[in-house]
Amino acid sequence: MNALKAVFILGASALAACAGAVTLKADAGTAYYFGPAAFFSPDGRLPYGKTDSAVKREVLDGGARIIETVTQPAPGHGMRPKESVTELKRRKQTLVYSASDDKGTFSGTVTFKDPALKSWTYKIKLAKGGEITGTGSLSEEGIKTEKKITGPGRPMLVREDLKPVSEENYLLQVRMMRPSAGME
Q1: What is the 3-state secondary structure (H, E, C) of 4-73?
Q2: I want to staple 67 with a disulfide (CB 3.0 to 4.6 A). Which of 29, 58, 86, 140 is the partner?
Q3: Whole-model pTM?
Q4: First-to-last CA distance in the chain?
Q5: d(CA 140, CA 76)
Q6: pLDDT tens-digit profile of 74-129?
Q7: How much of the chain exceeds pLDDT 90, in percent?
Q8: ∠53-58-122 over CA atoms, to 5°?
Q9: CA–CA dist 144, 161 (Å, integer)
Q10: Contacts of 123 by beta carbon, 8 Å cutoff, 6+ apart
């Protein structure tokens, strides 16, 4: 399950190595996304299931830091939703960012392919063994990722298709994931 949590946390971030100093052209500010994350066998043929993800993506310090807060429904009725925070920190003047989460479940790099931070690759090590590799992209249509999880547990392929939403819609989706008052 920690591998799945790490996949969502990384739902919308990444970067590609570049020689010399790179001037970022990333749009600063906060954006919101919502959509499905689908799980498959490693070859992508057999579906394992899917869940929803609500993502708040903050681009800070001129693109030098990216913070993503990912919220997903709880695994059981009456439980709080899962929330994880991932931070990406730019390494010097490159397009390589150090990636880690607030719970210490993974660390590694996201490498963007362009100064606008619109296309990336993942190279993440999971704390309990295994890794996440894959690609992602950001466009007007949203965030799309494809990640392979290997190592102990159940290897799988994860595809995310997150659409841009308003802050109000994002907050509504997060509220809907919470159990009714008194049910926690």
Answers
A1: HHHHHHCCCCCECCCCCCCCCCCCCEEEEEEEEEEEECCCCCCEEEEEEEEEEEEEEHHHCEEEEEEEEC
A2: 58
A3: 0.85
A4: 21
A5: 34
A6: 888 778 899 999 999 999 999 999 999 999 999 999 999 999 999 999 999 999 99
A7: 74
A8: 65
A9: 5
A10: 108, 109, 110, 111, 131, 133
Q: What is the pLDDT of residue 79?
A: 86
For residue 134, give the nearest of 42, 2, 18 by alpha carbon: 42
Distance CA 128, CA 145 (A): 23
Integer angstrom CA distances of residue 152 from 2, 3, 87, 97, 126: 11, 10, 25, 26, 10
Residue 28: CB atoms within 10 Å: 11
pLDDT above 70 covers a percentage of the chain that reads 86
- Token pair 């010399």 is found at 20
